[in-house]
Amino acid sequence: MAETITAVSEVPENSSYLFSVEDAFTNEREAIIVPCEDDPGVEAWINDCPHEPQKLDRGSGAAMRDGEIICPKHGSMFDACEGGCGNGPAAGMSLLSVDVEVADSDVVLVDNDYEFLKTGGLDDDDSGPSSTSPLSF
Ligand code: FES
């Protein structure tokens, strides 16, 4: 089922928009929408580097340069439109694609393998005991 993720205008010009999906095995995964020069202007990928367990977008947007997404761990760069990598330790590997389309200025998830869960990453609404303790009032 096609589900709207966000407006195209919400996707940063030189970084990524983070959202969460559930795959066919009910695993929750993070995914990113990135700007791409080719039509329809955005692409989406699972938010994992194929080299080692490492999120490309760690919650504040992935680093990008010249249309490529930069892995924060070892610096491999992935083509934002194609997902492929030609350099660094992830050379020859590719990001896992998530199919999206643009409709009425919105980015729509059209991938049968993934269901839209929410905007933001999986840890975003962790109400852990970090900053505000419920006991301190
Ligand atoms: S973990 Fe991304 S290049 Fe090594």
From TrEMBL:
**PANTHER family associated with the record:** PTHR40261, RIESKE DOMAIN-CONTAINING PROTEIN (PTHR40261:SF1)
Q: Where is this region: Disordered?
A: 118-137
Q: Which UniProt keywords apply?
A: 2Fe-2S, Iron, Iron-sulfur, Metal-binding
**Biased composition, class Low complexity, residue ranges:** 128-137
Query: So where does this one cross the membrane?
Result: none
**Which protein, by its recorded name, is this?**
Nitrite reductase/ring-hydroxylating ferredoxin subunit
Chain segments annotated as coiled-coil in the UniProt record: none
Q: What is one Pfam family matched by this protein? A: Rieske
Q: Give the species.
A: Halolamina salifodinae
Q: Which GO terms describe its molecular function?
A: 2 iron, 2 sulfur cluster binding; metal ion binding
Give the source's domain of life in one word.
Answer: Archaea
Q: Where is the Rieske domain?
A: 16-109
